[in-house]
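Example for tutorial group B:
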C-alpha cells in the first residue's frame, strides 16, 4: 500500500482508510434500518395472526351461529312451510357467495341432520339400541283392598312418555284393567285425545272378591292407542301378582311399560324397499314379499294383499294396492308404486303400509300395519333415515307387522 510521506508524518488518514470507514458506516446504518423494518413486520404480522385466531374462536362469528342453530331442537309447535327447519343452517350473503349449494341438496342435508337428532333411538344407536326399543313409557297407579267390603280398589292415575302410535305424531291412550286369568271381565279408562302424558285419575272397584281369591289373581294393565277406523294399537302392559303386594293399605306404584305379550311378531313380517329421488320429488315404494303372515281364514290360511296410503299431516292423499295372493302366508308381490312428494313436505309425510286379508263374503280383515316416517317406531325411523341418507338408491328392510 502506498503512503504519502507528508500525510503520514502529520497523522492524516489515507483515502483508502476513509473509503473503508465510509463503507463500514453505511453497512451499519443499513443493518439498523433492516432490523427496525423486520421488528415492525413481525409486530404487524403477529397482531394480524392474533386477530385472525380471535375471529375464528369468537361465538359471534357466522360459523358459530350456524352450528348452534343446527343442533337446536324445535319448540314442538306446528311449523308452516315458510318457517326454517330445526336442522337447516341459515347462511348470510357472504356464505352463499363462497359456498354455493343447490336448494334441493341443502334441504336433503338438513332433513338428514334433523332426523339424526330428533328421531327416537337415533342417539348412540349401537350402544343403546336395546334400551331405546323398550322405551314404551311408564304408568302410575294405586292398589288397595277393603277387607270389610271385600273390594279391591285400583286407581289409574297417569302415564308419561308414551310412544306416538298415530301418523300425526301422537296417541289417543286409554287403559284396560284385568284380574287374570279372567279375561272376560275388564274395566277401561276414558280415552285421552292426542296426549303422550295423559292424566286419568279414575278409580275402579272389583267388588265381592274374598281376600283368599284376590291373592290368586294377577293385576294386568294394558295401555292402548284408540283408533276409530281400525283395531286399537297396543302400547304396553304391566303385570303384578297381587300376592306380592301389601293390600292392607293403598300403595302407589310407578311401573315401566313392557311390550304386550300378544305383540306384532305373530302377525308376520313384510319386506319392502324405499327409494327417494330428491330431483324428481318422488318416493318409490316396492312391496317385495311377506313371511309368516297370520292366518285369518277358517282353513288356516289367508288371501293377502297390501294397501299403501300416502298421508300428508292428517290427510289421506293417495292410495295404491297390490294384487291378491290366494291362500298364501308367504306371498311374493314385487310391485312398485311411485308417490310424488315435494321435498319441503317430506317432514310431514307418512306412508302407511297395511297388509289385508281379502274376504269375498264379508269385510276384509287387517293382518297388520307399518307406519313409515321420521317420527314412527325405531325400526321404521331407521328405514326412513336410510332412505334420506342414500338418495336414488333402493333401501330394503324387514318390518314386523303391528296390530
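The residue assignment follows.
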Amino acid at each position: 500500500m502506498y503512503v504519502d510521506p507528508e500525510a503520514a508524518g502529520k497523522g492524516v488518514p489515507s483515502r483508502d482508510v476513509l473509503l473503508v470507514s465510509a463503507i463500514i458506516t453505511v453497512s451499519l446504518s443499513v443493518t439498523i434500518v433492516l432490523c427496525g423494518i423486520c421488528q415492525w413486520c413481525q409486530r404487524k404480522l403477529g397482531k394480524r395472526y392474533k386477530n385472525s385466531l380471535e375471529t375464528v374462536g369468537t361465538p359471534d362469528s357466522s360459523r358459530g351461529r350456524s352450528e348452534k342453530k343446527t343442533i337446536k331442537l324445535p319448540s314442538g309447535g306446528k311449523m308452516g312451510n315458510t318457517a326454517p327447519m330445526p336442522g337447516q343452517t341459515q347462511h348470510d350473503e357472504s356464505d352463499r357467495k363462497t359456498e354455493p349449494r343447490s336448494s334441493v341438496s341443502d334441504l336433503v342435508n338438513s332433513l338428514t341432520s334433523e332426523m339424526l337428532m330428533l328421531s327416537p333411538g337415533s342417539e348412540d344407536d349401537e350402544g343403546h339400541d336395546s334400551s331405546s326399543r323398550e322405551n314404551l313409557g311408564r304408568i302410575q297407579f294405586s292398589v288397595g283392598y277393603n277387607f270389610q267390603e271385600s273390594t279391591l280398589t285400583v286407581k289409574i292415575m297417569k302415564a308419561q312418555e308414551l310412544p306416538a302410535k298415530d301418523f300425526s305424531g301422537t296417541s289417543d291412550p286409554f287403559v284396560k284393567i284385568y284380574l287374570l286369568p279372567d279375561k272376560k271381565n275388564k274395566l277401561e279408562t276414558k280415552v285421552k285425545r292426542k296426549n303422550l302424558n295423559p292424566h286419568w285419575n279414575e278409580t275402579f272397584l272389583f267388588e265381592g272378591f274374598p281376600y283368599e281369591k284376590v291373592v290368586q289373581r294377577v293385576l294386568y294393565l294394558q295401555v292402548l292407542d284408540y283408533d276409530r277406523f281400525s283395531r286399537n294399537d297396543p302400547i304396553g302392559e304391566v303385570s303384578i301378582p297381587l300376592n306380592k303386594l301389601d293390600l292392607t293399605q293403598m300403595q302407589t306404584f310407578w311401573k315401566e311399560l313392557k311390550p304386550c305379550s300378544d305383540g306384532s311378531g305373530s302377525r308376520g313380517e313384510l319386506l319392502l324397499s324405499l327409494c327417494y329421488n330428491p330431483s324428481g320429488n318422488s318416493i318409490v315404494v316396492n312391496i317385495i314379499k311377506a313371511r309368516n303372515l297370520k292366518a285369518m281364514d277358517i282353513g288356516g290360511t289367508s288371501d293377502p294383499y297390501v294397501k299403501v296410503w300416502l298421508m300428508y299431516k292428517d290427510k289421506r292423499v293417495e292410495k295404491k294396492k297390490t294384487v291378491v295372493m290366494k291362500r298364501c302366508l308367504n306371498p311374493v308381490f314385487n310391485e312398485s308404486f311411485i308417490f310424488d312428494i315435494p321435498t319441503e313436505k317430506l317432514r310431514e309425510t307418512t306412508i302407511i303400509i297395511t297388509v289385508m286379508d281379502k274376504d269375498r263374503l264379508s269385510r276384509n280383515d287387517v293382518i297388520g300395519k307399518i307406519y313409515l316416517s321420521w317420527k314412527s317406531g325405531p325400526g321404521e325411523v331407521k328405514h326412513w333415515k336410510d332412505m334420506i341418507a342414500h338418495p336414488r338408491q333402493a333401501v330394503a328392510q324387514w318390518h314386523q307387522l303391528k296390530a
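The two ends are 117 Å apart (CA to CA). Compare this with the pattern of hydrophobic and polar residues in the output above.
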